[in-house]
């Protein structure tokens, strides 16, 4: 999944102020801090303008790709949903805002809540080049998110790679706050056990308030994945730009970003929403004449299913299905 040309060009120009060495060093330090993972810690992960630039260079393409993938799956299940207003919380340099404008061109008004002024400065600079008038005209609000903060009404509310940065005890309350009066809430986190745990805590809180999961889960029951043994996550492939390769040591021309996500529908989006049937939880095993699928099912937990060539049309469909797709056959 490629960054939009305008975003790539704006990033290149914003990053040209820094030497590749400074960016690589900042990227390494950022990775270390994220690895040490101190949710809600007093010191922010991004501390200097170099850190912010390094984040945009080496993480924004991946978070943009994960947001686009998760939004695409939610949009596929709510075909009538055409949001006009979008609130992005912990918006960083704007990955989710760019992604949403690609998935929902109906968006007219965008608000980003972000706690860090340096991050807002870069996000705003990038957004000025966006083809979407909603992104270009986004209102960037410097604030720390908490449940009591006054929340602008928005049809679409997103929080990507940010909920897990809050103290664990705040996650349920903030998740419920995100969902207040929203037609669709989408939370994206890294596809790690910790990211999935954040998503699971948000899911429990939202279902506890009577909201309906749209994706990825095909049911509103307890998650059948046993904590500690596995975690619900998906993957999106993105090409590494030359800049990305320079900042992030590595020789591959692409990378696979793993992400966990949750889309919860309020009334507007739920009208006409199609339940996914089942969700494909792994890369399907494709051998001659046989496709094996690990599925999360509505009534039967996680099931391994074999589809064979003898099943004709269902087999042909299974040949094309990918990890993360809905499966209704
Ligand atoms: C890992 S970045 C993710 C940025 C962006 N959403 C993305 O997907 O690329 C997390 C962002 O959340 C912001 N953040 C963390 N805690 C926050 C809080 N309590 N209130 C507002 N923003 C917060 C950070 O400043 C940072 O910009």
UniProtKB/TrEMBL annotation:
Keywords: Iron, Iron-sulfur, Metal-binding, Methyltransferase, Ribonucleoprotein, Ribosomal protein, Transferase, Transit peptide. It comes from the Bacteria. One of its GO terms (biological process) is translation. InterPro entries: Mt_RNA_Methyltransferase (IPR052571), Ribosomal_Rsm22-like (IPR015324), SAM-dependent_MTases_sf (IPR029063). One of its GO terms (cellular component) is small ribosomal subunit. The keyword rRNA-binding does not apply. One of its GO terms (molecular function) is metal ion binding. The keyword RNA-binding does not apply. This is Ribosomal protein RSM22 (Predicted rRNA methylase). It comes from Nonomuraea pusilla. The lineage of its organism: Bacteria, Bacillati, Actinomycetota, Actinomycetes, Streptosporangiales.
């Amino acid at each position: 999944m490629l960054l939009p040309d305008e975003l790539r060009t704006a990033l290149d120009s914003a990053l040209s102020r820094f030497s590749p060495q400074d960016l690589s060093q900042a990227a390494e330090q950022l990775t270390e801090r994220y690895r040490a993972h101190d949710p809600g810690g007093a010191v922010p992960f991004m501390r200097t303008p170099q850190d912010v630039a390094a984040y945009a260079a080496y993480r924004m393409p991946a978070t943009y790709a994960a947001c686009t993938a998760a939004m695409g799956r939610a949009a596929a299940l709510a075909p009538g949903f055409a949001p006009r207003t979008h609130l992005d919380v912990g918006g960083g340099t704007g990955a989710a805002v760019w992604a949403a404008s690609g998935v929902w061109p109906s968006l007219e008004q965008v608000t980003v809540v972000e706690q860090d002024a340096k991050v807002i400065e870069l996000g705003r600079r990038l957004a000025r080049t966006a083809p979407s008038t909603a992104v270009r005209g986004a209102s960037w609000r410097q604030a720390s998110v908490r449940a009591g903060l006054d929340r602008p009404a928005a049809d679409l509310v997103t929080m990507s790679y940010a909920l897990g940065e809050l103290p664990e005890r705040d996650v349920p309350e903030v998740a419920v706050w995100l969902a207040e009066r929203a037609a669709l809430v989408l939370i994206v986190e890294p596809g790690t056990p910790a990211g999935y745990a954040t998503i699971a805590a948000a899911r429990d809180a939202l279902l506890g308030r009577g909201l309906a999961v749209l994706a990825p889960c095909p049911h509103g029951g307890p998650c059948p994945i046993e904590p500690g043994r596995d975690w619900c996550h998906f993957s999106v492939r993105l090409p590494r730009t030359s800049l990305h390769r320079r900042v992030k040591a590595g020789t591959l021309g692409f990378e696979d970003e793993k992400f966990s996500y949750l889309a919860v529908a309020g009334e507007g989006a739920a009208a006409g929403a199609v339940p996914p049937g089942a969700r494909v939880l792994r890369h399907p095993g494709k051998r001659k004449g046989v496709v094996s699928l690990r599925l999360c099912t509505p009534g039967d937990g996680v099931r391994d299913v074999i589809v064979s060539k003898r099943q004709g049309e269902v087999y042909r469909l299974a040949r094309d299905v990918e990890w993360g797709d809905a499966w209704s056959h």
